[in-house]
Design a protein that fits this description.
alpha+beta, seven-stranded mixed β-sheet, five-stranded antiparallel β-sheet, 5 helices, extended
């Protein structure tokens, strides 16, 4: 059976069209058999009524031949986003429930606030609390004792029990610490002539290697996209602006255009800070992550398709990730190439 064209928004098969054509011929033959006398007003009226009836039946037949109504049954799934950063408190552990496609997405509705979230490590077990105050993006599970920091080279186990008794588990082994060998400079000057980069060569950064690390993630994050002059000496009222990027026209329709950070993944410990890593001028932070395998796989899929692939999940009982990383960072200032 081969697909042909669409009728009233639904796909109709060749076999269906032959059936419709046969029915049309039957209607026509029936119409021809009806007694018609041009000199009889009553007969003409009767024939007109029959014709209207046939047209009505034909329309009903077409409508009934349309494809089945798309299913509206929805089976929700749980989604976990949990990252542990070495030497940082345990925070931003998120549990969400997927939302139906026919409804508008609301983060506050998707967040699951009343689950039991536990983390085990080194024969210890801690229970996390849920924070639902302040910026909605920061609503998450966390451990209230901020003096407890994530340890390097340690296995952590995550266990979540949802309100409907679904068990979600995951395991990660945190990477070791590392440090700067050549740190970023305190400030960078964007080239005055963007067609001639020789006047401002990219700065090189370098860090110590981490054992068994496949890729490092280099991140530039703008810390203030509004203010610029307040950080100068002496300060002034000049505002910040975006760095020209030839790809911005394509990005305007995507979330990436509005993100404050840019990521890159490299398999070595040296890196040149190229200019397309910046979206704004002004105050920035350069971060290098040494991710575990769970963290790395989950982040790299964003480079490919900017969507979630359940096959790359590292948790059981849900989709999502439970990963870890160690990191180094430094604040810098990017000076404008023009006022």
């Amino acid at each position: 059976m081969f697909t042909t064209a669409e009728i009233f928004g639904s796909v109709t098969t060749t076999q269906t069209k032959h059936s419709q054509k046969s029915k049309m011929l039957n209607f026509y033959q029936l119409f021809r058999l009806c007694p018609m006398k041009s000199n009889s007003k009553l007969t003409m009226k009767k024939n007109k009524n029959i014709l209207n009836l046939l047209i009505f039946l034909f329309i009903i037949m077409l409508i009934s031949s349309c494809g089945d109504t798309p299913p509206t049954d929805y089976v929700p799934q749980y989604y976990v986003e949990a990252f542990l950063i070495v030497d940082q408190p345990i925070d931003m552990i998120k549990l969400l429930r997927t939302q139906p496609l026919q409804d508008s997405f609301r983060l506050s509705k998707a967040l699951v606030k009343d689950a039991t979230v536990k983390i085990r490590f080194n024969n210890q077990e801690i229970t996390l609390a849920f924070r639902d105050t302040g910026n909605l993006d920061n609503w998450a599970y966390f451990y209230p004792d901020t003096s407890l920091k994530v340890l390097p080279n340690t296995q952590y186990e995550l266990e979540i029990t949802t309100p409907d008794n679904v068990k979600i588990t995951g395991t990660t082994i945190t990477p070791e610490r590392f440090e700067w060998v050549i740190p970023p400079p305190d400030s960078l000057f964007y080239p005055k002539d963007t067609t001639k980069f020789s006047d401002r060569k990219p700065a090189k950064i370098k860090w110590s290697p981490v054992k068994n690390m496949l890729y490092y993630l280099v991140v530039t994050k703008c810390l203030d996209s509004l203010e610029y002059g307040k950080y100068l000496v002496p300060p002034n009222n000049e505002k910040n602006r975006r760095v020209f990027n030839p790809f911005d026209n394509e990005r305007r329709r995507t979330r990436d255009y509005y993100d404050l950070s840019l990521w890159d993944a490299i398999p070595n410990v040296e890196y040149e800070i190229y200019w397309l890593l910046f979206k704004w001028f002004g105050k920035h932070k350069i971060i290098v992550f040494a991710p575990d395998y769970n963290f790395l796989r989950w982040v790299l899929q964003q480079f490919r398709a900017n969507q979630i692939n359940p096959l790359l999940s590292s948790v059981n009982g849900a989709i999502g990730v439970f990963g870890s990383a160690s990191k180094i960072e430094k604040e810098i200032f990017l000076f404008k190439n023009q006022p």
